[in-house]
Predict the structure.
Amino acid sequence: MALSITVNGEQRSLDIEGDTPLLWVLRDELGLKGTKFGCGVGLCGACTVHLNGQPVRSCSTPVASASGGKVTTIEGLAEGGQLHALQDAWIAHGVPQCGYCQSGQLMSAAHLLANNPAPARDDIVAAMTGNLCRCGTYSRIIAAVESVVGTSLGYDAAAAREKS
Amino acid sequence: MAMNRRDFLKVSAGTSGSLMLSLSLPGCSGMPTGYQQESGKWKPDAWLEITDNDEIHFTLARVEMGQGTYTGLTTLIAEELEVDPEAITPRFAPVAPEYRNPLYKLQLTGGSSSIATSWEPLRAAGASARQMLIMAAARVWQVDAAECSARQGRVIHPNGLDSMRYGQLVELASKEVIRGEVALKQASEWKYIGKQRGRLDARAKSTGAAVYGIDVELPGMVYGVISRPPRYGARVKAFNESEVRAMPGVLDVFEIERGVAVVADKYWRARKAQDALKIEWDNTDALSLSTDEVFASYRRAADEDNGESERSEGDYESAARETGKSESGKIVEAEYSQPYLAHSTLEPMNATAWYRNDSIDVWAPTQAPDLGRIAAARVTDLSPSDVTINTTFLGGGFGRRLTQDYIEEAAAVAFRVKKPVKVIWSREEDTQHDLYRPAMLHRMQAGLDGNQLTGWHHQIVGPQLLDWYVRNAAPAQYPWAPKFMYDTLGKVGLLAEGIATPKDMSAIEGAIEYPYNVDNIDIRHTHTDPGVPVTFWRSVGYSHNGFAVETFMDELAHEAGEDPYQFRRKLLAGQPRHLEVLDRVVRIAGWNKPVAEGRGRGIALFKSFGTFVAQVVEAGVENGAIRVYKVACAVDCGQVVNPRIVEDQIEGGIIFGLTAALYGEITFENGQVNQSNFHDYQLMRQYELPEVTVDIVESTEAPTGVGEPGVPPVTPALGNALFALTGKRQRSLPLKADA
């Protein structure tokens, strides 16, 4: 089917089977490899992207259901060459080990901060519990998110754009 | 490692404005080094390259799978080269003898060995390059080289004012000859070792830019998926080829050794076509066992054969007899068991291969590229020298990617389709066609006379990993051997254990290093293999032996009526590094203070990969589930290169071990794996995270491993904590809340 989605602010037209998961469209059709395949059934969160401002598991989101929607991926988290505050925090805290889950972790964290600029630790834990990390970077993730909380940098420009 | 640095350092003349250094490690054949000016191509057997425009490239021979080699090894070079680690660009090494791991004589990353085996040679490489640059500058300035210094990528004139960039000096420096030893910096002069906290790959991994195996993109690439037999060892009998071939986008459907491959223009189309694939399997040679039968077979084997003696001190049998006769004596016995465990790297197995012009290129997240070369040669008409392995970042390794089955598959598919093809495993395939951490059985016995431990007997029952690993490992050690020799080499490797391959320690590691001062020790291995594919898994033998040894020590402490910490402590006289971590963890955990209501504390101490680790776990049971509140950990890994990475590796190991303790279990029924994805093979999640404290002993001893040593003590420490709470001893894993 022919469809169009706006990915990281850019409108993209595609002709593809509508049941193809958004993940494989992003990765293989649009060349955005930052979003990862982990489990295929929405259990690990490695494929998390924002669809119309909401975090979704792109591995189990048929592209047809994203038709006409606005998608933000890890590649779209930075704005005008400026990394998202969370990305800076991830680097400063040395969060990633193997790094494979971190795109999904960052997208979950970015959604949390865009909707709740001052989350308590429990809010952070709850928001991040759907994202598995096999290396065990969990405590660094919490520390990195907390370091952004309460700063104006926590405001998520990408999410603002999705809402606009 | 003591060696004359002159012996392994070779310098090639820089005809190209670039200085190339090549290390020939002891036991490795030297290959010609240099730079091809015509093609401008980097020669792959060099470790360090400095260009005339100050680019510094470092060939990273130990893959980056999260454990931090990308940062740690680069830091070693940077320290001596007098540049910021950030100024160096690491590149993943191609296959070459120079890049073999001297511990294994194979080019593999494992055994928590990267920093330990690179500590001397990489600092020497950096120091030698620095010295040659200084000598070149001194020659230009007509001053004494000893009065020049190097700083931030420049050589500084004795006047302290003038300086030259390394890039300006490379061509001259490449002609310098070092006579004698190059002095390494004193620890007091270090700028990065022990201080560096960042990760050089953090930015790429926080922006989606890091390229993993699954991210490789090639022109005209197609996608392959493989249906493997549900029961290990089954063969394809028939399949509905024409029906599947007619599915949208399907390019080919064919049998390979490991199953049936479906190749399509898009990944999702390959998956949909695979759904339509119906295969009839010939189960003649297929596995048919269930997990219960595995343990029953272990018990039979243990009864029939008390096994090879792996360590014997004093006379356990007589000591046990004496103790048994003594008024105050008793013999304590226990049987422990651990299940098969999957690796669950978050990046599923995958590889991309392109067969063309009598050669094959493979892109893969692999821990052992030289074994990958054998795997690709095996299933094509090529020799290992025609195979190029391009290593990527690894989305987790944990030992899984030491076995090259996924490269073998991709190469077999590429050989047929003659197009670049990426083969991706689903999570279900990754879980069900893994090679597992072996299930093991342990029979423990000890003599206690009063509170004195008079004897220690440990019978380990289960398979050895080299039986499964040697297939590609032995040929990789002899890459010139013709392919028809591969199977023979594999067999010879097993027969001549200790000669063609090292002695297989995988079942007994950690058990034979039993550290407690007991006069009579008898440690044995009953080798039995039920035919379930097994391989290395973050700390392997140490993981199951750690649980058996340190839980049984806890049982003995309770039998002796002693505090489990004090009981261990009094048996560690003359072992200062064990004692130090044990005493420290007791301090940071507040072991001697009362524990909160509804919680128990457990302690364990285990040395693995040269690193001493003691842990105290505080746990309880909440809403019918085990809840881990705190893990305190003291670690002595010798000299620390990057303190934050050490903390992260130890904490990551703790979480890895807790995941196994709480959830880890692969079971079989009629030869088929029951688990498939993260709903029934669970990993610990963010909300379960305990408060972890890692305390690192300051040390000037040579560095040892940190990737794995955090794992072994945490399962016994947790089990011991639950015993302290409930009074019920759990001797098999995973642990249960309602035991």
Notes: Chain B has three domains: 5-201, 213-284+349-424, 293-340+438-465+504-726. The CA atoms of residues 234 and 286 of chain B lie 4 Å apart. The two ends of chain B are 49 Å apart (CA to CA).
